[in-house]
Design brief:
Layout: H1 2-19, H2 26-59, H3 76-88, H4 93-100, H5 107-113, H6 117-120, H7 123-130, H8 133-145, H9 147-157, H10 161-172, E1 181-182, H11 183-193, H12 198-215, E2 223-224, H13 237-243, H14 259-272, E3 282-284, H15 293-296, H16 309-314, H17 320-325, E4 333-339, E5 342-348, H18 350-356, H19 362-375
Antiparallel strand pairs: 1-2, 3-5, 4-5
The structure holds calcium ion.
Residues 246, 248, 250, 252-254, 258, 261 line the site of calcium ion (CA).
Length: 380
């Protein structure tokens, strides 16, 4: 009976976590189910009866899976996940099972996800990591080496060569550091052992398996970041499936080694996320008397542009880019960045927001923008 209850709980967990992965509160639902299960056990049997039944289960040789086992294949919930996605995605269950045979929980990944730079750093600390002379020089070299491809992407997607270059520069140092974690093992670790975001990562794990099977990759040995981002532009699996393009026409989308596909895919990603050709990205709002309270009231927690041109103009912001950046009633965002000399006030246009679709962080978008400015906006 206890084994049945446990099975029910495991099934409930699997169903809540994976089938309805988009629900925000699946972990809470699971915790509620556990509490409900515990109450049911207490109500029906009482503590002594549970102990007795527990001994009976051991005596009768009923093996109970350890849901904390380091090796994922020893967990019933992992087996249930494999069975479920194999059925849903029409994949060979034995083949998918084999992928998980040697996967283990990686503590280094759980440690790394707990301290992403965007969450814990201020602009004063973040900027020197990404906007360095070495990275600027690397960007100029990358831009010089891939001028034709960058021009082609600029023409097709309207995204400046310097922005595409800067994104690749911030993501992986122009391909120098694309990650050394097994993508499947990283996604498994974050799906099964990082409850806070398990629904997101389990969806990405399924996306990755489907992508890898479709592309014919050696699934277990594909390497990426601790969060499962892949290749020179660090696309996660769902982005790879949706936004990666074959820009050199060889019939494959290769973000690991085809510079054409890499450059084209970054351009395509930004275009699909609302990049506006020849429009501004961001501007420092220089003030005469510091940052006033009305200016601070424009600052929103959300990254979404929500302020109109008239509002910022009424507080003294004006520039030749404002009309272009807010044409067609496009809105802008106002932000403060904690810089070397104290708070800096910035205006972000629609294209700044597009960069935050690549990585949901103002620090990230500002680093990309400033690196791109330093690299130079025109191809040589
Ligand atoms: Ca290709």
């Amino acid at each position: 009976m206890i084994a049945t209850l446990k099975k029910w709980l495991i099934k409930a967990r699997t169903r809540e976590t994976f089938r309805h992965g988009r629900a925000q509160n699946c972990t809470e639902q699971f915790e509620r189910l556990c509490r409900l299960g515990n109450r049911m056990k207490s109500a029906v049997y009482g503590g002594c009866a549970i102990a007795l039944l527990g001994s009976m289960a051991v005596a009768s040789g009923v093996a109970e899976a350890d849901e904390n086992a380091k090796r994922y294949f020893e967990r019933d919930s992992v087996k249930a996940y494999i069975e479920q996605i194999s059925e849903e995605q029409d994949l060979d269950v034995n083949r998918i099972s084999a992928l998980f045979t040697d996967l283990e929980r990686q503590q280094s990944i759980l440690d790394a996800i707990s301290r992403p730079a965007e969450r814990s750093l201020t602009w004063r600390e973040y900027r020197p990591i990404f906007v360095t002379q070495k990275r600027i020089d690397g960007g100029k070299a990358f831009l010089a080496e891939h001028t034709e491809l960058l021009k082609k992407a600029e023409e097709k997607f309207g995204v400046p060569a310097s922005i595409i270059t800067a994104i690749i520069g911030v993501e992986t140092y122009y391909g120098g550091n694309t990650g050394s974690y097994g993508v499947l093992e990283a996604l498994a670790t974050l799906s099964f052992d990082y409850p806070r975001r398990s629904d997101f990562f389990s969806r990405e794990m399924t996306e990755f398996i489907v992508l890898s099977e479709a592309e014919g990759w050696d699934t277990v040995n594909v390497l990426g970041s601790y969060a499962g981002a892949m290749g020179m532009p660090q696309f996660i699996a769902s982005s790879y499936r949706e936004y990666a393009i074959d820009f050199d026409g060889d019939g494959r989308r290769d973000l690991f080694s085809s510079h054409a596909d890499i450059i084209g895919s970054v351009g395509n990603y930004l275009a699909r996320h609302g990049w506006v050709e020849n429009a501004p990205i961001a501007e420092r709002w220089i003030t005469d008397n510091g940052i006033t309270q009305p200016m601070r009231e424009f600052v929103r927690e959300s990254l979404l542009p929500a302020i109109d041109a008239d509002s910022v103009r009424s507080q003294g912001f004006d520039s030749s880019q404002l009309a272009q950046g807010t044409q067609d009633d496009r809105l802008l965002s106002v932000m403060t960045m904690a810089g070397e000399q104290g708070d800096e006030l910035w205006v972000g246009y629609r294209n700044f927001y597009a960069i935050t679709r690549y990585n949901h962080s103002r620090l990230y978008a500002m680093a990309v923008y400033q690196l791109a400015e330093a690299i130079g906006s025109s191809t040589p």
